[in-house]
UniProtKB/TrEMBL annotation:
Species assigned in the record: Cynara cardunculus var. scolymus
Residues of the Plant heme peroxidase family profile domain: 22-271
Cofactor(s) listed in the protein's UniProt record: heme b
CDD domains per UniProt: ascorbate_peroxidase
InterPro entries: Ccp1-like (IPR044831), Haem_peroxidase (IPR002016), Haem_peroxidase_sf (IPR010255), Peroxidase_I (IPR002207), Peroxidases_AS (IPR019794), Peroxidases_heam-ligand_BS (IPR019793)
Family, per entry: Belongs to the peroxidase family. Ascorbate peroxidase subfamily.
Any GO CC annotation of this UniProt entry: chloroplast
GO biological process, one term: hydrogen peroxide catabolic process
GO molecular function: heme binding; lactoperoxidase activity; metal ion binding
Name listed for the protein in its UniProt record: Heme peroxidase
């Protein structure tokens, strides 16, 4: 378990940055992409070689140019606005803080945040993040390599409750308030980023357990299911958690908060 090793001034900066991130992420409706940035910085961790992980290396052109990071430069630039006001905060901490705040401001659980991560510019080779066209064995290969479990895989996949609505990310709030139904107006997304199209849930800016509810319903008009989503249904060890989280949002929030904290602290041993 990580313990804070930062000084009081640093903690104050974190507190200020957290407040600024709350306002920024809410105003820009960019919670989904901020959460994805945090996950993609952390999700390269290799527990055997102790390389990758939440170390800010995704800010290097080499790494954000990886195919799986398509679109994340936007989130990196958003974070730079906060970084310029709080230069002492490491990128590694800032990206993870943004991920935690993204979950919080969209109505998700509070994920405990411990600062003190160090920055690195050493990027792992491409290919450490999951490939959405594959099945359960691949998900296990990838997440076990991070040192995470079946339960973490399913709980964290619930992060797909969020998906950005591109036009809203770039436009002002005035435009948002004119839209009675955000989904009906802008619900299709991102064929240009991942090759996949459409949101997972009807309210892609609300963090809830609807990802699991929709998953169990099967095919739904206009909603996205990746092969890796279907794998969570087909594999009995995964499916038990899908069923639990679909019927018990508190159980999902509890497990999600635990798994997200683990993800955000991969390889982060301080003290
Ligand atoms: C988006 C794959 C796990 C959070 C996406 C997209 C794909 C994908 C293909 C669409 C990207 C786009 O076109 O914009 C996967 C696979 C996973 C996985 C195969 C393996 C289990 C996770 C985890 C989290 C997460 C663990 C966080 C806890 C997100 C979010 C988005 C997203 C928030 C929406 C980003 C946006 O709309 O801006 N993911 N993902 N994903 N993923 Fe995942």
């Amino acid at each position: 378990m990580a313990m804070p090793v930062v000084d009081t001034e640093y903690l104050k900066e974190i507190d200020k940055a957290r407040r600024e991130l709350r306002a920024f992420i809410s105003n820009k409706n960019c919670a989904p992409i901020m959460l994805r940035l945090a996950w993609h910085d952390a999700g390269t961790y290799d527990v055997n070689t102790k390389t990758g992980g939440p170390n800010g290396s995704i800010r290097t052109e080499e790494e954000y140019s990886h195919g799986s990071n398509n679109g994340l430069k936007i989130a990196i630039d958003f974070c730079e606005e906060i970084k310029s006001k709080h230069p002492r905060i490491t990128y590694a901490d800032l990206y993870q803080l943004a991920g935690v705040v993204a979950v919080e401001v969209t109505g998700g659980p509070t994920v405990d945040f411990v600062p003190g991560r160090k920055d690195s510019k050493i990027s792992p080779k491409e290919g450490r993040l999951p490939n959405a066209t594959k099945g359960a064995p691949h998900l296990r290969d990838i997440f076990y390599r991070m040192g995470l479990s079946d339960k973490d895989i399913v709980a964290l996949s619930g992060g797909h409750t969020l998906q950005s609505i591109p036009k809203l990310v770039f436009q002002s709030q005035v435009i948002i308030s004119k839209h009675v139904s955000i989904f009906a107006t802008h619900g299709k997304a991102h064929a240009d980023r991942s090759g996949f199209d459409g949101p997972w849930t009807r309210e892609p800016l609300k963090f809830d357990n609807s990802y699991f509810v929709e998953l169990l319903k099967g095919e739904s008009e206009g909603l996205l299911k990746l092969p890796t989503d279907i794998a969570l249904l087909d594999d009995p060890a995964f499916r038990q958690y899908v069923e639990l989280y679909a019927k018990d949002e508190d159980a999902f929030f509890n497990d999600y908060a635990t798994s997200h904290k683990k993800l955000s602290e991969l390889g982060f041993i301080s003290g």
